[in-house]
């Protein structure tokens, strides 16, 4: 994973509507990038729904949540609508952002990982799950955010 304390690499990716979104648009705000392997898979669905269920915990801390996987914008749109996900899902079909953040798994898909970026663009936290079938419990993630 990208080292904490480094400048987060800027990127531009399409969202679920095809609109291009750049990380630099969020300068001045904290951003939590959530890398995940794929839409509508059992563990990813549980993970993203957990973020959905706790989105108020992020917004109350001034954090914008953004999900990133290699799925297409169309797949993201269906996934977000089906599960009522209230945050951006960005399509990294070439895996360039996953590579830039060292979040590319051994199967060529994004690892299950997160990166918290501060208002100036510095990486505050980075974490990757060793096993692709689990993800860090929300209480542990929030505790790490509060301690940063």
Automatic annotation (TrEMBL):
Keyword Coiled coil found: no
Catalytic activity: a hydroperoxide + [thioredoxin]-dithiol = an alcohol + [thioredoxin]-disulfide + H2O
One GO CC term on file: cytoplasm
Database matches in SUPFAM superfamilies: Thioredoxin-like
The EC number(s) this enzyme carries: 1.11.1.24
A biological process term (GO) from this entry: cellular response to oxidative stress
Keywords: Antioxidant, Disulfide bond, Oxidoreductase, Peroxidase, Redox-active center
InterPro entries for this protein: AhpC/TSA, Peroxiredoxin_AhpC-typ, Peroxiredoxin_BCP/PrxQ, Thioredoxin-like_sf, Thioredoxin_domain
PANTHER family, per the entry: AHPC_TSA FAMILY PROTEIN, THIOREDOXIN-DEPENDENT PEROXIDE REDUCTASE
Name of the protein in its database record: thioredoxin-dependent peroxiredoxin
Organism: Chlorobaculum tepidum (strain ATCC 49652 / DSM 12025 / NBRC 103806 / TLS) (Chlorobium tepidum)
Lineage summary: Bacteria, Pseudomonadati, Chlorobiota, Chlorobiia, Chlorobiales
Gene that this sequence comes from: bcp-2
